[in-house]
Design brief:
95 residues; two-stranded antiparallel sheet; 21% strand; disordered C terminus; globular; alpha+beta; 3-stranded antiparallel β-sheet; Hypothetical Cytosolic Protein, Chain: A
């Protein structure tokens, strides 16, 4: 019998739900102070996680939760990049 691997859980800053790390998008503040989207999940720096939904992003922005978690102001550039990456429920293609 093989051992079962433990799945790392993270909390979404928007909806505050715990989900597996792979389901969430990581936003990282690098040691240089730059805020970027970390698609690999391995970039060094302080990270915050968010669900891939527009509603969670809006909650995180409205409550300034991203800024609080990363301890740095978030630019509109980063917010626009995140919005482009996320798909709202109305925009999902039907399968």
């Amino acid at each position: 019998m093989s051992k079962k691997r433990r799945v790392p859980l993270r909390t979404c800053v928007g909806c505050r739900e715990k989900k597996s790390k792979r389901e969430l998008i990581r936003i990282v503040r690098t040691p240089a102070g730059e805020v970027t989207v970390d698609l690999t999940g391995k970039q060094s720096g302080r990270g915050a996680y968010i669900c891939p939904r527009v509603a969670c992003l809006e909650k995180a922005i409205k409550g300034r939760r991203l800024e609080k978690n990363l301890r740095v102001p978030i630019t509109l550039e980063v917010i626009d990049t995140l919005r482009k990456m996320l798909v709202s429920p109305e925009e999902k293609p039907e399968s």
